[in-house]
Amino acid sequence: MNGCAVLKSKGEYTIFQFNNDIIRFMTSERLERYTKIVEWDHGYLVVMAKYKNIGEVEEYIDLIPILDKLYYDVDKFLEPIKEVKIDYAA
After folding, report:
1. Which run of H or E residues covers position 87?
2. How far apart are CA 39 and CA 3, in angstroms?
3. Radius of gyration (C-alpha) of the chain in whole angstroms
4. Could you give the count of Cα atoms lying within 13 Å of 51 in the half-sphere of its Cβ?
5. Taking the chain (90 residues) in consecutive chunks of 10 residues, what is each chunk's mean pLDDT?
6. Cα–Cα distance, 85 to 3 (Å, whole number)
7. Rounded to the nearest 5°, which phi and psi values hold at 77?
8. Do 57 and 48 form a contact (C-beta atoms < 8 A)?
9. Quick check: 11 and 52 in contact, CB under 8 A?
10. How far apart are the C-alpha atoms of 32 and 86, rounded to whole Å?
11. What residue spans of 5-69 are helical by DSSP H?
12. Parallel/antiparallel/unpaired status of strands 31-41 and 44-51
């Protein structure tokens, strides 16, 4: 485990991946791509995202309610994640 998770989008989905866990959730159909991770704080992300007809905006993603609904042990899952990077090649 390297402590680095990956964030990306594909179509109408945001994808958060850490080790063998791939978590997908709906996002706006106007989202083109995430461009920058501004902050990672134990399940809470501040990111820059590029949208069609809007441009780049700051966006907030709270993974905790998503992980709860998927019956993850939230603290156990998030504890080893030290950073999040954007990687559309992964």
Report:
1. none
2. 15
3. 13
4. 13
5. 90 95 94 97 96 95 96 96 92
6. 11
7. -70, -45
8. yes
9. no
10. 13
11. 63-69
12. antiparallel
> Could you tell me the two tokens for 11?
């179509």
pTM of the model: 0.91
Amino acid, single-letter form, for residue 71: Y
Cα–Cα distance, 77 to 44 (Å, whole number): 13
Tokens 């809007």 correspond to 54
Which sign does the torsion angle of CA 17, 21, 22, 25 carry?
negative
The encoded tokens of residue 78 equal 């998030």
* Residue corresponding to tokens 């905790």: 64
CA-based nearest residue to 59, from 81, 86, 79: 86
